[in-house]
Design goal:
Distance between the termini: 53 Å
Strand content: under 5%
CATH topology of the largest domain: Hypothetical protein af1432
Number of helices: 17
Radius of gyration: 22 Å
CATH class of the largest domain: Mainly Alpha
Strand order of the largest sheet: 2-1-3
Helix content: 55-70%
Structural class: mainly alpha
Shape: globular
Number of domains: 2
Number of strands: 3
């Protein structure tokens, strides 16, 4: 195994020092005294490590394709959902809660789908997928599993609600509801992947990390960031490119050519969720407006005002809390 300097601008960053030499140097670069580490683990290896998928995640891209296809039949969609009995149970149970108040008791998936509709059924599947996927804390990023899960589901709800209200000019079209939801839900899956691989196999470049990992640190230490990791993983899971691209370009949305509005919306929505906890959005939405700072260029690109963004974040947070409560009953 070879070693190189961890500092990008050091001449030894591109070196291949034998392990014996690194040991003699006590794993310190003789030019700048930075740490000597093994070469980064290739992203392909990290992605290939993930084999077993939660059932709900397996269904989501297939269901998205069916929902986007005008030729799909109701029986096709229900048949796919029936491949996971636990999802059928969750959807039927949710359809009988106060959130989806109905005049009769739903006992079958067909009854449930008639009551709640395919959009809400897809949202329930996403909710379950997030609870299956984000089960572990992410110490590399200073996040607990609950924080990651809550942020992901709130992001999904916000993207779906605000996306439905955009008034886009040509050549852009309104984001598909399910696609917007999925983009918001899975925007942080790359962090989960990196943290999971490090916790299981160990990544030498991260062994002495003391501060939460940032995108800049990822690029320096790993050679890729969590956005690229998310894109590679989602492509392996067969998600459509209209889901993958906004997540890949969420920090640089104007580089996202085909689905730029979704990438712009994801950027401003994710920032709002990150900056404002749920209680602030619900209880003090007016007070937040004076302190809220968002990229005016991004908002203009999708014809969205700061007020509409904050109102959407607040409304989707209330809806998320009611929706979550109904599924926990």
């Amino acid at each position: 195994m070879s070693y190189h300097c961890i500092k990008p601008d050091c001449p030894n960053h591109d070196a291949n020092l034998p392990k014996e030499a690194a040991q003699k140097l006590e794993y310190r670069c003789f030019l700048c005294q930075s740490e000597l580490v093994p070469p980064p683990v290739p992203l392909e290896k990290i992605v290939d490590f993930v084999e077993d998928l939660p059932a709900a995640i397996q269904i989501m891209p297939k269901l998205q394709v069916l929902l986007s296809d005008a030729n799909s039949s109701i029986s096709d969609i229900i048949g796919l959902i029936k491949t996971d009995p636990s999802l059928v149970s969750r959807i039927v149970k949710a359809s009988n809660t106060a959130y989806f108040a109905g005049s009769y008791y739903c006992s079958t998936i067909e009854d449930a789908m008639n009551r709640i509709g395919f959009t809400e059924a897809y949202n329930i599947i996403g909710y379950v997928a997030a609870s299956q996927l984000f089960q572990q804390d992410l110490p590399l990023y200073g996040l607990t599993s609950d924080e990651l899960w809550s942020s992901s589901v709130r992001g999904a709800s916000s993207m779906q609600l605000i996306g439905s209200r955009l008034r886009l000019v040509q050549p852009y079209v309104l984001p598909n509801s399910g696609v917007a939801y999925t983009v918001g839900l899975l925007r942080s899956v790359g962090k989960m992947l990196i943290n999971f691989f490090h916790g299981t196999h160990g990544i030498a470049a991260l062994s002495s990390l003391k501060a939460p990992l940032t995108v800049e640190m990822e690029k320096s230490l790993l050679g890729f960031d969590n956005r690229e990791a998310a894109a590679a993983l989602l492509r392996k899971w067969n998600f459509q490119e209209e889901v993958v691209s906004p997540i890949l370009f969420q920090d640089t949305p104007f580089e996202c050519e085909e689905v730029r509005p979704l990438a712009c919306l994801l950027n401003v929505t994710a920032k709002g969720i990150r900056d404002f906890p749920p209680d602030k959005l619900v209880d003090e939405p007016q007070a937040l407006r004076s302190s809220f700072k968002s990229d005016g260029g991004l908002l203009s690109a999708i014809n969205l005002s700061p007020k509409a963004l904050l109102d959407g974040l607040a409304e989707s947070t209330i809806d998320f809390q009611a929706f979550s409560k109904s599924l926990l009953v």
